[in-house]
Amino acid sequence: MKFKLATGCFVIGSLLSAVAAQAADSDRAHPMAFVKDSVITTKVKAKLAGEKMSSLAHIRVDTDRKGVVVLSGKVKTQEQADRAVSIARETEGVTSVENHIHVK
After folding, report:
1. Residues 47-70, mean pLDDT to the nearest whole number
2. Distance (Å, whole) CA 42 – CA 19
3. What is the pLDDT of residues 15-26, one digit of tens each?
4. How far is CA 15 from the centre of its chain?
5. Is 93 helix (H, G, I), strand (E, B) or coil?
6. Three-class SS of residue 31?
């Protein structure tokens, strides 16, 4: 009887550890992950707005859970697009930048 109980506990523990490992790997379920992402996004947007170039205000900024910033939208010149990417890269917490900005 004790052997069956111990075996059952071992099997259940093994199954639950796999679920726990998956939950730990997916930090998006944790509210602080969203806060961190939004802080990075807000910092980038504030820096873009501070540049006082009207085209930079039309750039959309999104941040994923690993600190990757995605920039999208339209600007007038390639220099403005490059400046937006540079600003994003210089922002604290950003690990990399994906540039989806189009020059019109």
Report:
1. 86
2. 33
3. 555 555 444 444
4. 30
5. coil
6. helix
